[in-house]
Amino acid sequence: MTHDDPQTAGHIWRFFRAGGFDQVRLETGADIANLASLDQKLWVALACPTRGLEFDEKTLDLIDTDQDGRIRAPELLAAAQWAVSLLKVPDDLTKGRSSLALDAFAVDTPDGARLLASARTILNLLGRPDAMVITLEDTADIEHIFDGSTLNGDGVVPADAAASPELAAVIADVIATMGPVSDRGGKPGVSKATVDRFFAEAAAYRDWHYQRADQPLGPLGEKAAEAAVLLHGIATKIDDYFTRCGLVAFDPGAAVGLNPDPALYAGLGTVEIQADAAALAALPIARIEAGKPLPLIEGINPAWAVAVMQLRATLVLPILGAMDDLSEANWKRLKDGFAQWQCWVANEPDTLLKTLGIARISAILDMDAKTGIDSLLAQDAALAPEIDAISDVDKLIRLQRDLFPLLNNVVAFRDFYTRAGKAVFQAGTLYLDGRSLDLCVRVEDEAKHSQIASLGGIFIVYCKCARKGETMTIAAAITGGDSDSIRVGRNCVFYDRKGQDWDATITKIIEHPISLRQAFWLPYKQAARAVSDAIQKLAAARQASVKQDALQKAFEKTVAGDPVAVSATAPKEAPFDAGKFAGILAAVGLAFGALATAVATIVTGFLHLPAWQMPLVLVGLMLAVSGPSLIIASFKLAARNLGPILDASGWAVNARLKINIPFGTALTTLAKLPPGAQRSLNDPFAEEQRPWGFYLLIAGLAAGVLVAWRLGLIALLFGS
């Protein structure tokens, strides 16, 4: 059976409608047992993250079998089937209890019987062998159950599990060189992998070390490195000596040129000569003659005498034996041995075991400690099934408590749409601008989240929250009120699901329509804002003009003693143009007249309407202004979708999660006085009330005069 070929026969599913679509009603254990037969196209979500939810993270990790940080539909189905198979009555999964009666296990199945035995083992270890109920507190700390046991089936053996001090010391050496592996109780120990690696590296290191005896420099032992350095320092000079002797053997006449010039000694005879002088060191190490071996005792260049004596004592005597000179063949033997020794050194195994020393490594290998440790690991592995069963008891109790609410937050969004409780993705409540926002989700990456969340058409504010050194980011949806005072940088307060308050600051805003009320007044607010901006610009221009006049006057005062300078620098006033002024005045008069005529026509037409039509006209005018804004906002509000907000948080939403106007109103609560509250309207600091009645009377009289003029009544009155 696959999710593309659902088998729904045999179980009757019930659905409820919320958010504009049908959602499955999960109510009984039978619903959970048959969940695999429900077409996954009817699931609200097919995956959710294991972090950022208001849910027990350990339970989520147990369901997330591949440990990728996401729970997918197959993992939920596997958890449901596993839990159902281990309980006699599947309805126990709907109770939400954190305790499990021992008689609730389905003992007619091998796994059920195994878990019951493990539950009894836990109660025995906790000193309650007669208990008939096991709780989550009993299994939550599995490590504590095995505090008194050195072997606990986790594949890790600590040093104190060894039967002898010698074996315990070997385990300690393995931990020191390979690194510790923590067991269930938190003790450092060794695993099969670290033990196998330790002994493989130990054998390789000992084999490498004992190859020293086969090396030409092997007889030198620990002094081989020192001898190698000495040999390297003098090798070039000795090679030069034997090369020169070879040239003389080839051509005896070359001896004159290859040995020092006698004139050189004549120059040295008049100065003090030091044995380590650079001039002497540049000369051959010994006199050049055809086929002559290198003297090791007498006839050596004083600059090299000490090095040759050390070479004889350190290398020649231990390897070649006692001799007074070194032939070219023996010299090549020493050099070849040095090259082989260097190759051996280069092949030294890269392991931390060498810190133990070859003696300790050899002792560990000779005592066959690996057999003893492998025996302990085998004993620990034999306990694994029982220990795993204990872990399964903990998992079953957790699923009994948490699986049902999790399914009702993934397969269906019952908690969110019924408003009976908060959904697992709701992080808490944000209090902002006289309202509380219930649709708040945790956010890991604000920039990445906002790119996707903006597609939902919901007004969102991102807030950085801080409390006692902790920080987190939330995205809160505003679905009621207006956005007039919402701005980046504003401070607010966030209450998490535990009731803890966090300082919150708005860091980003995604703007979309919030409500129809906001849309209705939006054109008037925009017009008022435009007028306000125009007045501010006019005032700013006037202020700049006044400032310029003040600067001009100050300048004139500074040059008051020089009238010529004032007249030369002061701007000349243009002569009055009467024709231009008359044209401007005429244009203003025409415009005012046209405006007055239009207003008079409208007022006249309005006054000629029957009384019952006048309110309709006013309503029509308001709809003409606010109607387009209301229509656009209503379409956008109806299209609001929660899906992008959750998708950006790691969910895989499988339905169109609408946030219609009534539901959006429920998600944002505006401030209002409690029922029965007493209210006093006497405000001692209220601003002085303007005489709006008088203003309206004056406006009415003016309108009446204007209408009378348009109707010719004024002309009749004055006889014109």
Could you describe the 3D structure shown?
Helix content is 50%, strand content 12%. It has an eight-stranded antiparallel sheet with strand order 14-16-15-18-17-12-13-20. It has a three-stranded antiparallel sheet with strand order 4-3-19. Among the domains are: 15-147 and 389-417, no CATH class; 213-350, no CATH class. It is flat and about 155 Å long. The protein has 720 residues and is an alpha+beta fold. It has 27 helices and 20 strands. Helix 7 crosses helix 8 and helix 20 crosses helix 23 (614-638).
What's this, in brief?
The chain is an alpha+beta fold.
Question: Which features would summarize this protein structure in a list?
Answer:
720 residues; alpha+beta; eight-stranded antiparallel beta sheet; three-stranded antiparallel beta sheet; 12% strand
Poorly predicted segments: 1-8
Chain-averaged pLDDT: 82
Overall helicity = 40-55%
What's the total count of β strands? Answer: 20
Shape: flat
- Radius of gyration based on Cα positions: 49 Å
Distance between the termini: 100 Å
| Biggest sheet character | 8 strands, antiparallel
Protein structure class? alpha+beta
